[in-house]
Design a protein that fits this description.
By secondary structure, the protein is mainly alpha-helical. 44% of the residues lie in helices and 9% in strands. A two-stranded antiparallel ribbon has the order 1-2. Strands 3-4 form a two-stranded antiparallel sheet. Helix 2 packs across helix 3 and helix 8 packs antiparallel against helix 9. The N terminus is likely disordered.
Length: 256
């Protein structure tokens, strides 16, 4: 029996064939069908849309974006290799972990001020103000300020790190919020208190869309310098912090 001719346009049939091909694992054949009908530009656009749908945070580590790869007819995600860490940061973390072997509480670096908050703040500054950050903080964090940009230097500032368990092993991970160290009584540690003030000022400046020089000096630079001076030039565990508390029911950790 001869198949009845369809009244649908060719590009509609091609898209339907593409969907059927993907549903039955024939992604390669479907891609070729689409390519013959719509050309390379349409195929490129479809692949780009697929990548865009899997944005930042899709990777297992949550740092950087992700990309979609096709292997043996299966669509898989893999973490983007691009990372915010400098080699010096990675090496220092490895050294700290080596000094505390198999300790789940000494595993990962958490930013006290979220690293995502530096870029919008820096966008408000003048070139002299950005240079002032480098001039004042580089002697206190030389490894971090070996970075080509002040944004990346601040993301690798040792004083802004707290060492702890993996995010999935915490019941109190703040996500994009501030992540201070606390003492056994629940008070914020001195270094974290300085950075908490910095964070509050940065958020206010970004919301206002303006930076006043006096506030920049007194509310950003001065407390950041204090935090760096208290902490030192290397990644270390804050000696004033309390130990983590573990919930026996879930096995997850939290601050006091």
């Amino acid at each position: 029996m001869r198949a009845q001719a369809s009244s649908e346009p060719d590009h509609v049939q091609a898209r339907a064939g593409t969907r059927r091909g993907i549903e039955h694992g024939g992604a390669s054949a479907a891609m070729l069908a689409l390519q013959r009908t719509a050309g390379n530009a349409a195929v490129t656009a479809m692949v780009q849309r697929s990548r865009t749908e899997h944005g930042d945070g899709c990777g297992p580590g949550g740092c950087g974006g992700s990309e979609v790869a096709q292997r043996a007819g299966k669509v898989v995600q893999r973490a983007n290799k691009k990372d915010w860490k400098l080699g010096s940061t990675q090496n220092e973390l490895a050294s700290v972990k080596a000094a505390h072997p198999n300790d789940p509480l000494v595993d990962t670096l958490h930013h006290i001020i979220p690293k995502s908050r530096f870029e919008p703040f820096l966008a408000l500054l003048t070139s002299p103000q950005v240079q002032q950050i480098r001039t004042d903080l580089a002697p206190l964090a030389p490894a971090a300020f070996g970075a080509p940009s002040v944004d990346k230097a601040l993301k690798n500032l040792p004083a802004n790190f707290r060492v702890g368990p993996r995010p999935e092993d915490r019941s109190d991970d703040p996500g994009p919020g501030i992540d201070v160290n606390t003492t056994a009584s629940g008070n914020t540690t001195p270094r974290s208190a300085e950075l908490e003030n910095v964070f509050a000022y940065m958020e206010g400046a970004v919301a206002a869309g303006a930076v006043v020089q006096a506030d920049f000096t007194n509310k950003f630079l001065a407390p950041t310098i204090n935090a760096c001076t208290q902490h030192g030039t290397a990644i270390n565990i804050d000696p004033a912090r309390a130990t983590w508390i573990q919930d026996p029911a879930t096995g997850k950790y939290r601050k006091p």
